[in-house]
Structure formats: C-alpha cells, structure tokens
Specification:
The structure is a single chain. By secondary structure, the protein is mainly alpha-helical. About 85% of the residues lie in helices and about 0% in strands. The two termini are about 55 Å apart.
Amino acid sequence: MAETFRPLAIMNLYGAAFVFLSLAIIPSFYMPKSFIEIALYGFIIALSVLAFLVPFNNIHMVLARLKRRELERINEETKELLRELEETLDEKNPKNIRDRVAILNARLLAMSLKEKMVRDAGEWPVKVRFFTALVSLAWVTFLRYILDIVLKYFIH
C-alpha cells in the first residue's frame, strides 16, 4: 500500500528541499533589516514545515485506516473459515470430509500469511531516512534563522 504513495512523497521531498534551501540562501542576498522581517522569515520556515508534514500525516492516516479495514476483513473471513471447519468436522457423513478439511486448512493458512503481510505493511509512504533528510534541511534553515538573529541583534 505504501508504495502507491511513494512517488508523491518523493515529489514532496524535492519541493521541501527547494523551499528549505531557498529559505537558507535568501538571507545571503537579502539580510532581514528588522525584527518583523526576521519573525516573518521564521513564520515562513514554520509554515513550510507544516506544509510538508500535513500531507504525510494525511497519507499515514489513510494507510492506517486501509490496513485496519483489511485486518478486520481478514479476521471476519478467518472466523467464517473456522466456523465452516467446525461444521465440517461435526458432520456425521465422513464422505469427502478429508478433502474439505484439507481445503479449509489451506485457506486458513493463506489467511494467516495474508494477515502477516498486512500487519508488516508500512503505514508511512517513506522510510525513516526520508524524514531524516527533511529534518536536516529544516535544521540547517532554522540554524541560519538563529544566526541571522544573533548577527543582527547581538553582534553589531
């Protein structure tokens, strides 16, 4: 499921990289002159981080909901198979019972494997290193922001 959203996530990373690198470079050409400009610059950094994280959180919520629904469906289907297996074993007529039990056991095994695959599926469209790259970009931009404040107001 997460692979479906991976191209969108990569595009989002490139967009965030462009924004954060731009925010880190802009003060090199235009040094904020007042505290208001510096505060506005900080607000833009915070807004950029939020604009990046909100879509990922939405994707995460969709993937988690899909995963939960699929696990519920698998659970219901497993219960139905177990009920059918019990009924088959309780039958008085042993004709073809061995074949039906074998088929039901195979289907239960398949359900078990499917459940494991769904449980192991990621709920985030990207790996942790993706967020590490974002945090690094945001951190550099934030350090530049702090450096601007220190240079402007504390070192004349």
